[in-house]
Design goal:
The protein is an all-alpha fold. It has helices at residues 27-48, 55-62, 66-73, 76-103, 111-126, 129-141, 146-173, 182-202, 209-225, 231-236. The model is unreliable at 1-22 and 239-243 (pLDDT under 50).
């Protein structure tokens, strides 16, 4: 995915970690140390990529000993999994917040408008540069480290589907949506709304946000109406009047 140039920095003095009487870091100090390690590792993975990031470099940048990093995460794969888990949680938070907001919105707001707001949030966090960079790294490492791919699926995709399905359950209970299987509906919704745009960004051909939102709105209309359209219109429309695919 290419290496990003990093600025030369003056090494910061090693922090004094608060320790208990037994010589081990206090609980608060250990939490602060782990947060610092994850922050540093995240930046290095994004700047250098997976292969060019070493645990030694992470330890030096985080100002902790190498044995501390190895004892905490085992190896680079374990550290990457910890970073990925936190990033996925960050990406899912806006989806959950958007779903909760739309559930509490005024009853006169259409389902389409609610889904557009959720779709807009999804575009913002799934197609951002950090999300795309981690998606590329996870894809490139999936063959060698299938547990990383499993983590991405279970912590990312499946939780996003579950969150969206719960939102659809509420809409069904309100009579605003008629869906038999909300899990399948959630999978289809996520794929058609942001799947294409995210894939293009991962391939290095990101869409402008305006174009991506236009596509998202069209996808939501198709999701709600279905590609066939109302049954009565389909039966009554003569073949000659049916829409033809525009020439390209």
């Amino acid at each position: 995915m290419g290496l990003a140039a990093t600025k030369t920095r003056t090494p910061a003095p090693r922090r004094e970690t608060s320790k208990s009487r037994g010589g081990r870091p206090t609980k608060s100090a250990a939490i602060e140390r782990d947060q610092r390690l994850i922050e540093v590792a995240t930046r290095l993975f994004l700047d250098r990529g997976f292969d060019a990031t070493s645990l030694d470099a992470v330890a030096e940048a985080a100002r902790v000993s190498k044995p501390t990093v190895y004892s905490r995460y085992g190896d680079k794969r374990g550290l990457f999994a910890a970073v990925l888990r936190r990033e996925i949680a960050r990406w899912l938070a806006p989806l959950s917040a958007a779903a909760e907001t739309q559930l509490s919105s005024a009853a006169d707001i259409s389902v389409e408008a609610r889904l557009i707001e959720i779709g807009r949030e999804m575009l913002n966090f799934t197609c951002g540069p950090d999300a795309v960079a981690f998606s590329r790294m996870m894809t490139s490492q999936a063959i060698n480290f299938p547990d990383v791919a499993k983590l991405g699926k279970e912590e990312g995709w499946l939780k996003a589907v579950a969150t969206t399905a719960r939102f659809f359950d509420h809409l069904v209970a309100q009579g605003a949506l008629d869906v038999d299987d909300t899990t399948i509906a959630a999978e289809v919704f996520l794929d058609v709304v942001v799947g294409h745009t995210h894939r293009m960004a991962t391939f290095g051909t990101p869409m402008e946000f305006k174009a991506a939102e236009k596509r998202m709105r069209a996808a939501i209309k198709l999701f709600l109406a279905g590609a066939i359209g109302p049954a009565d219109r389909t039966r009554s429309a003569p073949k000659a009047a049916q829409r033809r695919r525009p020439s390209r």
